[in-house]
Give the backbone structure.
Amino acid sequence: MTIKVIGPGCTNCETLAKRTTEALRHLHIDASIEKITDIQKIASYGILSTPGLAVGNKVISQGRVPTVSQIEELLTSYVA
């Protein structure tokens, strides 16, 4: 599974990447995290407000930095 953190590489993007890593560890999910920072690629996901979080090509969050528990809920509902 590939999780994508989508944004220009700002502080919020880095925070989202760290929280996502922690959520994956808590859930015992083996996944890689890819950072998408290219503006054209960000636009291709339909992201209007960064940071965004996607599983594969499906955006599951955008425009905010969810807590670790919120990310766990998002991932659990997506994987289920």
In short: The two ends are 13 Å apart (CA to CA). The helical segments are 11-27, 39-44, 68-79. The domain at 2-75 is CATH 3.40.30.10 (Glutaredoxin).
